[in-house]
Design goal:
The chain has about 400 residues and is of the alpha+beta class. About 25% of the residues lie in helices and about 30% in strands.
C-alpha cells in the first residue's frame, strides 16, 4: 500500500484551514518517479473520494488506454487558474493499479510536493499544499481563484449545519420524554423531534449531516458505522459460519452465538483479532493462538473474514463527512426517561488514511453481533472511544446548549 509522508508544518496549516472551512478533498504526494513519468498512483482515499463524489469508479473501469476517462480540471494558485484535464485509467500492466495524471501539473509542482484535489460541480480543482499559503490567499483583499472556490464550497456546507443547530436549540433545549425506555431511545427521539424518519439507510441523517446521540456518562463506545465483510474474499462466507466456528453456547440455545469486541491489539477470548494487510489493502479478522510467543506475537491459525480498506473508507466518508455528536443529560420522571441536549461536537471531513492507522493501533475496534437469540440480523459495527475522535477528525467545534445540572 502506498504511504504518503507526514505533512510538514506549512502543509499542516493548509490542511487545518481547509478542514475548518468544511472543504472535502483528497491528497496525493508527487514522487520523483511519478513526476518524471507523469503518472500518479491513486491511493485508496483518492479512489473513495472520487467514487463518493460521482467522478469515477476505478473498480468498474477496464484496463488499457482505450478506456481512459478524461475529467475537466483546474490548477489553482493565489493569482491564477489554469484550465486543463485529468486522465483516469488502469494500465494493462501491474494488475491494473489505478492511476491518474493532471495535464500541465509539472508547471506547478516539484517532486515530493503534496497537492489537494477538490471536486466541485464535476470538475477537479488542484491546489499545491506544499507551496501555496491557502489561508493567506483566502484572506487576501485581491479576489483570487482559491478565495472563490472556498467561498462557494463553505457557503454550501455552513448553511445546512446552521439550520440543524438552530432546530436543535429550538426543539431540544428543554426536557423531552424519550419515546422508548431503551439504549436506542435517545437517538430515536432526537430523529423524531427533528422530523427524520426511521430508516436503515447507510447515508447521513440530515441533509448530509450524521447525528450520533449519547447519554452523558454512558460507557458505550461511540459507533462510527456498520459494514459487512466482503464474503467473496473471506474464508467464512456468513455470520452464521463465523458464529458456528468461533462462537459460544448460552443456556437454552441450540447453536452458537457471538457477541464480542475484536481489535488489533491482541486476540479476544475466542482468539479473534484484527490485522491491517497493507499489501492487499484489506482489513482482516483472523483466528490466533491465545498465547503470545517470545517476541510478543500471536500466531495466526486461520483466516476468518476480510473488508477492503477502500470500502471502509467509502463508508466512513459517506457517513461522517459531517457529524453532530450530541451529548444529552438524562433523568427519570415517574416511569418515563426525559432528556435534554447539553453539548454538540461538530466534526467534519475525517482523515481517511488515519482510519487504517487507528485500526492498527487498536483505537478503532469492531463489535460483532452474530446469530443473536433475539433473531435480529448480524451486525459488524466499527467503534471508537470519544477520546480518540480528534485523531480521526482533526478539527471540530463544540456548541453549548445547556450546562449540566
Amino acid at each position: 500500500m502506498i504511504h504518503m509522508r507526514e505533512y510538514n508544518a506549512f502543509e499542516t496549516k493548509n490542511v487545518k484551514f481547509l478542514v475548518n472551512k468544511q472543504i472535502e478533498y483528497a491528497t496525493i504526494q508527487i514522487t520523483q518517479t511519478g513526476y518524471n513519468k507523469g503518472i500518479l498512483d491513486t491511493t485508496v482515499p483518492v479512489r473513495a473520494y472520487f467514487l463518493e463524489k460521482g467522478v469515477h469508479d476505478f473498480e468498474k473501469q477496464p484496463k488499457g488506454q482505450d478506456h481512459k476517462k478524461m475529467v475537466n480540471s483546474y490548477i489553482l494558485t493565489d493569482t491564477e487558474i489554469k484550465s486543463t484535464q485529468s486522465s483516469l485509467y488502469r494500465p494493462e500492466t501491474k494488475d491494473g493499479d489505478p492511476r491518474m495524471w493532471v495535464y500541465k501539473l509539472k508547471e506547478y509542482v516539484n517532486p515530493d510536493d503534496i497537492f489537494a484535489i477538490i471536486v466541485y460541480e464535476g470538475s477537479l480543482y488542484v491546489i499545491n499544499l506544499t507551496q501555496i499559503d491557502i489561508e493567506k490567499a483566502y484572506n487576501s483583499v485581491l479576489i483570487n481563484p482559491i478565495q472563490d472556490l472556498i467561498n462557494s464550497l463553505h457557503g454550501i456546507a455552513t448553511s445546512v449545519s446552521e439550520e440543524l443547530l438552530g432546530m436543535i436549540r429550538d426543539r431540544m433545549s428543554d426536557w423531552l420524554p424519550s419515546e422508548v425506555m431503551a439504549d436506542t431511545g435517545i437517538g430515536r427521539t432526537v430523529e423524531s423531534v427533528l422530523g427524520i424518519p426511521m430508516n436503515d439507510s447507510k447515508m447521513a441523517d440530515y441533509k448530509g449531516i450524521e447525528l450520533k446521540s449519547k447519554r452523558i456518562g454512558s460507557t458505550t463506545t461511540g459507533a462510527l458505522f456498520t459494514n459487512t465483510p466482503d464474503w467473496a474474499l473471506s474464508k467464512c462466507k456468513s455470520g452464521r459460519e463465523i458464529a458456528d466456528k468461533y462462537g459460544y453456547l448460552r443456556p437454552g440455545l441450540e447453536r452458537n452465538t457471538l457477541q464480542v469486541t475484536v481489535s488489533a491489539l491482541k486476540p479476544n477470548a475466542q482468539g479473534l483479532g484484527l490485522e491491517v494487510n497493507w499489501k492487499d489493502e484489506w482489513l482482516e479478522m483472523n483466528h490466533f493462538a491465545l498465547t503470545a510467543n517470545e517476541n510478543g506475537k500471536y500466531a495466526k491459525l486461520n483466516d476468518v473474514s476480510v473488508w477492503t480498506l477502500l470500502h471502509l473508507h467509502e463508508r466512513l466518508a459517506e457517513k461522517h463527512h459531517e457529524t453532530f455528536w450530541i451529548d444529552v443529560e438524562s433523568r427519570i420522571k415517574g416511569s418515563v426517561e426525559e432528556f435534554r441536549v447539553t453539548t454538540i461536537e461538530h466534526t467534519k471531513n475525517p482523515l481517511l488514511p488515519q482510519f487504517d492507522v487507528l485500526l492498527e493501533q487498536g483505537k478503532i475496534k469492531l463489535d460483532l453481533m452474530l446469530s443473536r437469540p433475539s433473531g435480529r440480523g448480524d451486525t459488524y459495527s466499527f467503534k471508537m472511544d470519544k477520546r480518540w475522535r480528534p485523531l480521526l477528525f482533526p478539527e471540530s467545534e463544540t456548541y453549548i446548549i445547556n450546562n449540566v445540572a
